Amino acid sequence: MTAPILSARDVRKSYGRGANRFDALKAVSLDIREGESIAIVGKSGSGKSTLMHVLALLDQPTDGTVELAGTDTRALSGAALNRARNQTFGFVFQQFFLTPNASVLENVMLPLKIAGVGRAERRRRALESLEQLELGDKAKNKAVNLSGGQKQRTVIARALVNRPRVIFADEPTGNLDTATGAVVEDILFDLNREHGITLIIVTHDEELAERCDRRVHIRDGLIVDVIENPTATKSADAESASEPEAAATAAERAA
Amino acid sequence: MRPADLVGAAAGNTFRSKTRTILTILAIFVGAFTLTITNGLGTGINRYIDDTVAAMGADDVMTVTKVAENATDDSDGPREYDPDAIVSEREGPPGTTNVVAPIGPAELDDLAGIDGVVRVQPVKSVDVDSIAHEGGTEYEIGIGGFVSGMRLQLAAGEQPDAAASGYEVVIPDAYLDVLGFDDADAAIDEPVTLAVTDAERTRHELEATVVGVAEASLGTTSSAVPNEALNDALFAAQSTGLDASQRDIYSQATVWFDPASTADEITALQDRLDDAGYDSTTVAERLGAFKSVIDGIVLVLNAFAIIALLAASFGIVNTLLMSVQERTREIGLMKAMGMGSGKVFGLFSLEAVFIGFLGSAIGAGLGMVVGSAISSVLGGRLLADLPGLTLIAFDPVSIVVIIVLVMGVAFLAGTLPAVRAARADPVESLRYE
Ligand SMILES: Nc1ncnc2c1ncn2[C@@H]1O[C@H](COP(=O)(O)OP(=O)(O)O)[C@@H](O)[C@H]1O
Ligand SMILES: [Mg+2]
User: Do A113 and B9 touch (CB under 8 A)?
Assistant: First the structure.
């Protein structure tokens, strides 16, 4: 079987030093299979975002390794890490982080601009991405004039524009009302199902978590439980590719 | 990120906070504007001096005087009287010897034998009484020396022909009216009469043809300039009645050297002349003192402009620091999306450079417009006596230098905020709750 797209091995993350030292992650191991949807669930302050940042190669673990498709990321140069994040990952945050006075199109083109894609190609792909999220008619609008749901869809279009293999979503519906949140959730799961994009969702919303193939429960920097979801839309796939050992060890340690 | 996109993004970001950016640009504008004007002043005046150098004399000649036995510098205290010494009319920089020994045929031979001297000729200074046109009223006039290679600034006609045997003269334009000429062109080829009085108080009149009309300039304000033939004739007339030994005595000589000489070679020649007992002054030396005063003044003015620019550069630091502060999230996002720290640094320092460019380009542009306006207004009134002087002139090189300099200052000012942005930790800037 193929190597997991992302694999954390005994990842620790500490902040501060000496008496002020705080361990946000304590020996976390987790494999994420290509194409699955996984929820990282836990209370506020439990270390969900920290784990996501480490997996997304935004933050270096204090100890332990993160492998990207079998490659130890500690061996990668800064430029290679940047390229990996640009080409492989898409980000959706609770706060939209849109440039308010730039057009929707400009916002969506940003990752392509960073990647050094030419102007015409950039436009074409960004428009395509916006069409996919039914925002084609808003391309020229200023981001600031969009509704919350439109903003989050713009963010998803931006995350998609570089055709990533993994989308990281940190509380993607946290700032949206229930109805709009549901629409955004549907879009994310559609992308997962139809385009095979791996979905890593950080949330404290149990209902959202239940829609994922797997739920990883985290408490005080430790994985306490990993639940496979047999009723999830992708359950058949998930079972066949099941690899519960990492989760199991984590669960044992927590217990 | 492609370089063109980086520049585009930086330029775009500049105007996100319009008021702040405009105020910063205004501060830089003041500095660049001042620098443009002060520099233009230096360019204008020095260009005028350079033009005048040509009118004052060719650049391959120097004026030579013989140092008197008892010559001392003014600073050495009172000088002993020497009945044979000639008090030179030549003016020089402070400290030069004013009392000179006479130059006779022996000294001329002596000079001609010095290595590097191509030709030597005594300066036959002539004192004419008056000039008149076709028996009209006589007017006092001075006679300026003319050496081949010298170029007068002419309103009409041509330079006196050093080689011509006929008597030619260039008259200053101030004499046109009184001599009865309608304009400069009307005077060309007209005869004028020059009168000299010799040692025995006999009056001699010589007729010469006007070949040119000179515009007044620093060099030759109100003198008529004869060609060599006329000057020799005037000198001969003036010397009538003197015995041979007195006639061939001059206070100065003109020495020609190789026009291709380097500054070092000229200095070496001057040293050799010095060793032989002669004082020499090149045209460049005569103007050098004046030029260095101008350069000094311009330097002081430029220093003020630079101080204004330095003050403005703190404005850039402040503007960009605020910008970095406001855009922490955006910077974090771009870094999360794979933008390298170098590019982030580039983005912010380019923004600084762009602000610098706008300020300096507008400043230099407006400086040139205002400077040209000022100098044309002054040229018509205050400085009307100095035709040919453009008080504030601009040369493209120094304008480009100013703009590049300001952009450089802006870049330096931008480094602090840009480093801060480049160092920003994406995780820190993306954190919320
Ligand atoms: N830079 C930091 N310095 C110190 N402590 C931090 C820092 N970042 C996060 N933490 C702490 O780490 C813990 C986990 O944070 P986080 O992963 O953001 O939690 P969650 O996303 O689950 O709410 C929290 O207790 C938080 O206070
Ligand atoms: Mg969080």
Answer: yes
- pLDDT at B334 > cutoff 70: yes
Domain extents in chain A: 6-254
Q: What is the mean pLDDT of chain A?
A: 87
The alpha carbon of residue A46 and the mean position of all alpha carbons in its chain are separated, in whole angstroms, by 17
Predicted pLDDT of residue A113: 94
Residue with tokens 């170029």: B151
**A23 C-alpha to ligand 1 centroid (Å):** 9
φ, ψ for residue B119 (rounded to 5)? -155, 150
Count other C-beta atoms under 10 Å from residue A248's C-beta.
12
Map chain A to HEC letters.
Answer: CCCCCEEEEEEEEEECCHHHCEEEEEEEEEEECCCCEEEEECCCCCCHHHHHHHHCCCCCCCEEEEEECCEEHHHCCHHHHHHHHHHHEEEEECCCCCCCCCEHHHHHHHHHHHHCCCHHHHHHHHHHHHHHCCCHHHCCCEHHHCCHHHHHHHHHHHHHCCCCCEEEEECCCCCCCHHHHHHHHHHHHHHHHHHCCEEEEEECCHHHHHCCCEEEEEECCEEEEEEECCCCCCHHHHHHCCCCHHHHHHHHHHC
pLDDT-derived band at B91, boundaries 50, 70, 90: very low
Quote the pLDDT of residue A254: 43
Task: Specify the 3-state DSSP secondary structure of B119.
Answer: strand
Instruction: Say if residues B410 and B316 touch (Cβ distance below 8 Å).
Output: yes
Contact between residue B206 and residue B193 where contact means Cβ atoms under 8 Å apart: yes
pTM above 0.80, yes or no: no
Kindly indicate the confidence band of residue A235, based on its pLDDT and cuts at 50, 70 and 90.
very low
Provide Rg for chain B, Cα atoms: 32
pLDDT class of B45 with cuts at 50, 70, 90: confident
At A41, phi and psi to the nearest 5? -115, 150
CATH number of the A6-254 domain: 3.40.50.300
Q: What residues have CB less than 8 Å from B58, skipping those under 6 apart?
A: B147, B148, B149, B150, B283
Per-residue pLDDT tens over the stretch B234-273: 888 888 877 777 777 888 888 888 888 888 888 888 888 8
Distance separating alpha carbons of residues A91 and A152, to the nearest angstrom: 11
pLDDT surpasses 90 at A130 = yes
Atom of ligand 1 nearest to the CA of B431: 18
The answer, yes or no, to whether any atom of ligand 1 lies below 6 A from the CB of A97, is no
d(CA B380, CA B394): 19
The burial of B423, by beta-carbon neighbours within 10 Å (0-12 exposed, 13-18 middle, 19 or more buried), is given as exposed
Domain locations in chain B as residue ranges = 3-53+289-431, 76-280
Question: Measuring CA to CA, which residue among B363, B224, B225 is closest to residue B305?
Answer: B363
From residue B350, give the alpha-carbon distance in Å to each of B271, B328, B336, B413.
54, 17, 21, 11
| Complex confidence, ipTM | 0.86
Instruction: Give the pLDDT confidence score for residue B386 in this predicted structure.
Output: 66
How confident is the model at residue A1, as a pLDDT?
A: 55
Q: What is the pLDDT of residue A167?
A: 95
Q: Which two tokens stand for residue B428?
A: 């820190």
How many C-alpha atoms does B146 have within 13 Å on its Cβ side? 26
Distance CA A73, CA A70 (A): 9
Q: How many CB pairs under 8 A join A and B?
A: 59
User: In the predicted model, is pLDDT for residue B14 greater than 50?
Assistant: yes
Nearest CA in chain B to A99: B330
Assign residue B219 a region (left: φ > 0; alpha: ψ between -120 and 50; beta: otherwise). alpha
Residues shown for chain B? 433
Which among B9, B333, B340 has CB closest to A79? B340
Q: What is the DSSP letter of B174?
A: G
Q: Is the CB of A221 under 6 A from ligand 1?
A: no
